[in-house]
Amino acid sequence: MENFSFNLLWGDARTLLFSSATLAGSALVGILAYVLLFKFIDRITRRSTSTLQLLVAKQTRAPARYILPLLALTVALPVTALSERFKSAFEHFLTICLIGAFGWLLITFVQVVSTLITTRYSIAVADNLHARRIHTQTQVLQRVTIVCIIVVTISVILMTFPSARQIGTSVFASAGIAGVIVGMAARSTFASLIAGLQVAITQPFRIDDAVIVEGEWGWIEEIESTYVVVRIWDLRRLIVPLSYFIEKPFQNWTRTTAEIIGTVFIYVDYKLPVEPVRAELQTILKESTLWNGKTCVLQVTDFTETTMQLRCLMSANSSSIAFDLRCHVRERMIHFLQHNYPQCLPTRRDAVTIEPVAAPNDGQPPILPHRTV
User: Fold this and answer.
1) Do the domain assignments include residue 104?
2) What pLDDT, in 10s, does the model give residues 9-28?
């Protein structure tokens, strides 16, 4: 009886050791396959100039490190002599890991395609309107696709559990109350995702567009799946929900082109001749590298009781260049007026009514009040 028990235990231990060795060996085979595969890929990409090959080799390395050993374990598990209960549990665990790894691999391929597109269309050029349109669509669609892949991956993992599958069947078979509750709870999330798709398709704004949002002037820096980051001119960041740009009005200074017209207002006395100032504006703009050579206008646009208003119009290739050009024109115009027409700078005129004062009894002349101008 003792020999029988010992033989039984030894047989179980030997079976366990054999199964463990089989699984460990299969995992090592998977790791070895990963090492050999990527050595071969590195040798190919070392002599390649293809951006696609380089990106695929770089981005897929991390998920492949787990996928190949998991596949080897899945193949080796049926030939082991483990109990059916343990096999079932371990196979379920491997299935969950493989689903997650393949979801990771799909996300990696999406990122590779996105990086390839954004690399091909550079925004570091003067005329980057088309490139910014492509960048905006690519980034928004990439994030929406990644969110969908994550949701589908988690759903597939949950469906591998029989209890979760039964719960899901009963929920979908109900009157839809649970779906309504979940929909109301996730309303803001779905609204942001739908707003992201609308932004990608209609493109009311793009990456690096100059916009005015909530009274703040800045540039579109990032477009995330649920919000947009606006870089304010003083380097602050304004975080705005995506749905804001669909529901509320905002200013986009670079919707169709980055070119913009800047204005400078000058307030001068009525005695100033306008033609010399108009000629000086033309000279200032021709000497400046900030002007794009298209718009140069000086007009008298308003009168007040003390001054007249001159408006200078000038064009530039972007809003930031236009700001610098306006400052430059103001400085040169003030210098011109100070040195050539200082008497025509705005002055204040006060009218004083002088009333005679009755002469004193001693016959002295009356004292008049002091007059100010």
Assistant:
1) yes
2) 444 556 667 667 777 777 88
Taking each helix axis from N to C end, the angle separating 177-185 and 187-202, rounded to the nearest 10 degrees, works out to 60
- Helix intervals (H) in 47-128: 51-59, 61-76, 84-120
Q: Which of 120, 148, 168 is the last residue of a domain?
A: 120
Most distant CA pair in the chain, distance: 155
The CATH number of residue 340's host domain is: 3.30.70.100
> In this structure, what is the dihedral angle of CA atoms 166, 169, 170, 171, given to the nearest 10 degrees?
120
Burial of 310 (0-12, 13-18, 19+ CB in 10 A): buried
Tokens for 291?
């002007």
Q: What is the DSSP letter of 237?
A: E
- Separation between Cα atoms, residue 73 and residue 115, nearest integer Å: 33
Distance separating alpha carbons of residues 267 and 311, to the nearest angstrom: 9
Neighbours of 201 (CB within 10 A): 10
- Tally of domains within the chain: 2
Q: What is the pLDDT of residues 103-121, one digit of tens each?
A: 998 998 888 888 888 888 7
Helical spans, DSSP H, in the chain: 2-46, 51-59, 61-76, 84-120, 129-159, 162-173, 177-185, 187-202, 242-247, 274-287, 319-340
Q: Confirm whether 177 is domain-assigned.
A: no
Domain of residue 283 covers: 260-344
Enclosing H/E stretch for 309: strand 308-316
Is 91 within the bounds of a domain? yes
Supply the angle between the helices 129-159 and 162-173 in degrees, to the nearest 10. Answer: 110
Backbone CA torsion sign across 77, 20, 102, 162: positive
Contact present, 253 and 210 (Cβ < 8 Å):
yes
- Tell which residue, 264, 263, 260, 270, has the closest CA to residue 333: 264
| Token couple for 1 | 């009886």
Asked if 260 and 320 count as a contact pair (C-beta separation under 8 A), the reply is no
Residue where the block lists tokens 């003390």: 306
**Last residue of a domain, which of 66, 90, 120?**
120
Mean pLDDT of the chain: 78
Residue 349 lies in a domain: no
